[in-house]
Amino acid sequence: MSEPAATKTYKAVWNGVVLAESANAVKFAGQMYFPPDSVKVKFFQDSTKHTTCPFKGTASYKTVKVKGQENKDAAWYYPEPKDAAKQIAGYYAFWKGVKVE
C-alpha cells in the first residue's frame, strides 16, 4: 500500500516556509509522509491531539508556528503504528493548508 515517491524531492510548505523536504518521502494511503530527519522541528510544537485509525493506529499531532502565525495540529505522525503501517513509523504528514509540492 506504500510506495516510494520516485526520485522527486518533495516539500511541505506553509506560510512561505519549507517545513519538510525529502527525496525519501513515502506515499501511503494517499498521503505523502516525510521522514523524521527531513522535518524542520524548530517550526513544530507538541499538541495534545490524538486520533485513532483502525488501520494505522494512534496518530500524534504537532502545531506549526511560522512567522508569528500558528496552524494548529497541521502535522501528524504515528510514533507506534500498527504492523500494516510500520513503514511510516515516525514519518510526518500534513494538512490544513500545508502544501506538498
DSSP strand count: 10
**What is the 3D shape?**
globular
- Which regions are unreliable across 5 or more consecutive residues at pLDDT < 50? none
Structural class, please? mainly beta
Order of strands across the widest beta sheet?
6-7-8-9
Instruction: Say what oligomer this is.
Output: single chain
Provide the number of structural domains: 1
What features would you describe in this structure?
It is a single chain. The chain is mainly beta and 101 residues long. It has a single domain, classed as Domain of unknown function (DUF427) (Metal Binding Protein, Guanine Nucleotide Exchange Factor, Chain A). Helix content is 0%, strand content 53%. It is built from no helices and 10 strands. It has strands at residues 2-4, 10-14, 17-22, 26-28, 31-33, 44-53, 57-66, 69-77, 92-94, 99-100. The strands form 3 sheets. The protein has a 4-stranded antiparallel β-sheet, with no helix packed on it. β4 and β5 (31-33) form a beta hairpin. The protein is globular and about 40 Å long.
Question: What distinguishing features does this structure have?
Answer:
101 residues, mainly beta, Metal Binding Protein, Guanine Nucleotide Exchange Factor, Chain A, four-stranded antiparallel sheet, three-stranded antiparallel sheet, 10 strands, globular
